[in-house]
Structure formats: structure tokens, C-alpha cells
Amino acid sequence: MEKKRKISIIGSTGSIGTQALEVIDKIRDKFEIIALAGGSNVELLKKQTEKYQPKLVSSSANPDLLEGNHNAKILTGMNGLEEICSNKENDIILMACSGKIGLRPTLKAIENGIDIALANKETLVMAGDIVMAKAREHGVNIIPVDSEHCAIHQCIKDISQVDKLIITASGGPFLHKTVEEMKNATVNEALAHPRWNMGRKITVDSATLMNKGLEIIEAHHLFGFDYDDIEVVVHPQSIVHSAIEYKDGSVIAQLGLPSMHIPIQYAITYPERYEGIKSKSFSFAEIARLDFEKPDFEKFPTVKLAYNAGKIGGTATVCLNAANEEAVFAFLDGKIKLYEIYEITKKIYDEHKVIQTPTIDEIFEVDEKIREKTKDYIAHLIQKVL
Ligand SMILES: NC(=O)c1ccc[n+]([C@@H]2O[C@H](COP(=O)([O-])OP(=O)(O)OC[C@H]3O[C@@H](n4cnc5c(N)ncnc54)[C@H](OP(=O)(O)O)[C@@H]3O)[C@@H](O)[C@H]2O)c1
User: CB 3.0–4.6 Å: which of 17, 63, 187, 384 could bond 11 by disulfide?
Assistant: First the structure.
């Protein structure tokens, strides 16, 4: 009998986490769930724990609320996530939390030789050099979940023959809107992504295109390509998930209907493939046309900023990530306008003194300081308006 893959999901209550459980529901006999972890949605986490009966469950909220009809050991906070990621029973851990929370648990899993299905791109944006070096040292596979990186992972046979990565971007809800319309966009307009149904933070990043910027940095670390060899092309239908160009000019792309179920399934079952979540066959005739255009870096300057941070390296990307994340939260709270996310991030970024080869502790220190500085600056801006 085929051995079940033992899996834990960090961020099981989020968009990626719940879709991962839907994938697992379709191929239940292939998996044993070791642990689930979530943030504030304790009610859903408790329901998941009662349904999947993992050995461990961890929440950042009050752990007493997790008591219920299950035998899982209840854990809490970062210690809980690190205990899950130290459990060598795991064959693979799906890192599906958002923001900086993923970094420490990812490092812990790598130290314990556990493969990672990585959705949490912030881990690589903050500490890609350290994470990838540790993964190589411990012989750990980092399998991308992000649809673009998953596409590239599927296209590459011999990386030494590849000249260029081509990352597609849907362009988000403001692709064909004016800068003026973008400036006055409401939170609901920014959250109305035309193709993907995702968590709030990444959806706002997709509206400003910062998500594409973060993905360029993620691709640099995952595949070891120079930033000049990573190109972005806008493709509104989100059918071509990304492509690679070989030395001889041949381009290999990965296509599929826009659904995160497929890259999630690919990552957690790799290198096997199952029918699993597949709902319908791909039809070129039904799709009929695919459009591509150059990204407008003037309208979406976040992408240029991310290229700049990536090329500088060190804590430049830590600063970019932290300032952007705090500005996005302020936008979601109705404190600033959409366009100000970029302006605030740029201001904080320009003032940052980069540490070129930071330790993990320095990365967290910079992250903390930048977040405080960004929050103070936003408070100052609000004060000025009142
Ligand atoms: N959604 C997508 O389609 C998509 C595509 C590609 C990449 N990604 C990446 O995947 C990651 C997750 O995105 P998402 O859209 O799934 O975000 P999301 O819906 O906001 O989910 C985030 C998850 O992280 C959990 N979490 C928050 N704080 C936590 C803490 N302190 N400890 C443990 N868990 C915590 C949340 O729990 P609660 O909900 O219980 O608070 C939730 O389960 C992001 O890095 C994103 O960039 C997402």
C-alpha cells in the first residue's frame, strides 16, 4: 500500500489553507494531517481540528477556545508553530500564513529536514539568502505554491539551459483604470480582484502590483536568476501562469484555468500528480484568445521599487516588505488612500540604511523598526490632515 504523506498546514484557516484542505478532501487517502495552525479565526480552526483530528493544533488566539471533540495537543503562539515545525513525523509542511509569521517556522522545519510547500512569499522576501542556503545545507525541497513560481517549477527541466524567467501578472482591478481612478479607489474596489479570490493583504498587493514585485524577489531566490533575467508581462486572463525561455529561444509556458487548487495540489503532492481537484478539462477553443502587454511601471511604480530592492539585497527587501505591509494595513483600516501605500513605502525605503548580509536577528530587528517607523509616519500624515 502507498505510504500516506504526513502534512501540517500553518495558516489552515486562510485562503490558501482552506483550499489546501479542499484538495486533501479529494485525495484523503494520500494524506495524514499531523498539525493545523491558524491565527484569530479560532472557531474555524476548532471545526477543522474536529474534522481532521490532527495530533497538534496551534492558534495565536486564546488556546482555551480550541477545546473540543478532538485529542489534539493544543499549542499557542510562535512556540506552537515552532513545535509543529520541529515534529519530524512531518513529510511536508504547507506554509500558508501571511506576512512575517512564516519565517521562523520555515527555518525550524528546514533545520529538521522537512520539505516545505511555500505559499508565504514574505519568508523569501525577508530572508531568501538565509532560507535557501539552509535548505541546500539540509537537503530540503522548497516547492513553490504561488501559481507563477509553481508554473516555472513545472517548466524547468535543466535550469542551466534557461536564460530568462517570464512572470505573468493579471494586472489586478486597476489595469485599465486611470491613475486618478486608482487614487480614489475604495477598499472594496481594491479588494475586487478580477481573477483570484485571495486573502486581503495579497489582494491589495495585487491591486498596486506590489505582489508582482514581491514575486520577482521570490523568483530570484527560488531559482537563482539575476533580476535582469526576470521579466514581467501583463496577461489579464491569468491562463498562462508563467514561462521560461531557453538559451535557443524556445519558450515553455505552463497554462491552466485560474485556480489556486492546482498549484497547491502540485506542491503538496510533488513529484506525484493526481486527478484530485481537477474539475474540467482545459480547452484552447473555449479560451479562444490570450492577451499580453507590457507593464506600465509609471502607473505601477511598486514593481520598479521591488526590482531596486532586490538588486540592492540585504535588508532592502526586509524594509520594502515591512513598510508596504504596514501601509496596506493602514489602507485596509481606511486611514490612507491606495496610492499612498506606494508613496509611504518609498519614503521609508529611501531613508533605510541597508545592512548587506544581515543575520536572522538583524532581519527581525529591521522589520520591527521599519514597522514602527511606518506606523509613526502614517499617524503623522493623518494628524496633518486633521
Ligand atoms: N490566496 C492566494 O491565492 C495566494 C496565492 C499565492 C500566494 N499566496 C501567499 O500565501 C500566503 C497566505 O495568503 P492567504 O491569501 O491565504 O492569506 P489569508 O487568507 O489572510 O490567510 C492567512 C492565514 O495565516 C493565519 N495567521 C495569521 N496570523 C497567524 C499567526 N500569528 N499564527 C498562525 N497563523 C496565523 C491566518 O489565520 P486566521 O485567519 O485564523 O487569523 C490564516 O490562516 C501569503 O503569503 C500570500 O502572499 C496566497
Answer: 17
